[in-house]
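Researcher: Re-running this chain for the archive, since the previous output was lost when a drive failed. Same request as before.
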Amino acid sequence: MASQSGLPGETIRHISSLATLRRLRKGEALHSAGDICRHKTFIVNGLLRTYHIKPDGNEHILHFSPQHTWTLDVESYDKQAPSLVNIEAVERSEVLLWAKPDFDKLLKDIPELKRFSERLIAGTIYHNRNRILTILSATPEERYADFINTHPDYLGRLPLRMVAAYLGISLKTLTRIRHAQLQREAGSMVK
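Model: Regenerated structure tokens:
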């Protein structure tokens, strides 16, 4: 939090003192659909995913939350209503959790934290808008190319099934796209 926030160390220590540190194993749930989201979560390190499971068992990954970002189900948190999404660790992760009343008080008492939080949220909103536009208008090949350009470090960290679920395509389609890409790269090396 320190390097990106611009907050003084003493302020960061105070903010952190009101949080609970939680270590998550790969695949461990932080939050489950049907529960009420009661915590604001900052990812200290690791990678989490927020996803929804359709009645047919297929999952849609809404977004990934890497280190130094926030994650939560905003609607469930704000309305204190049951959540429609799950949040799970993709890899071993450490997160800081603040109960809603504690975090609300911090935002009121520390304007710099509020500004930092708003910057992170705005970045997430911009990213999600661009992702929606890409999903609505791009071919599967273009979606994959955009994913690689936007998140080059994710490919080595994610199973292909999660990449496919994030892109809204089948694993079979993703495998075909990757195979065609490798064939094009191999062909360009031969020339």
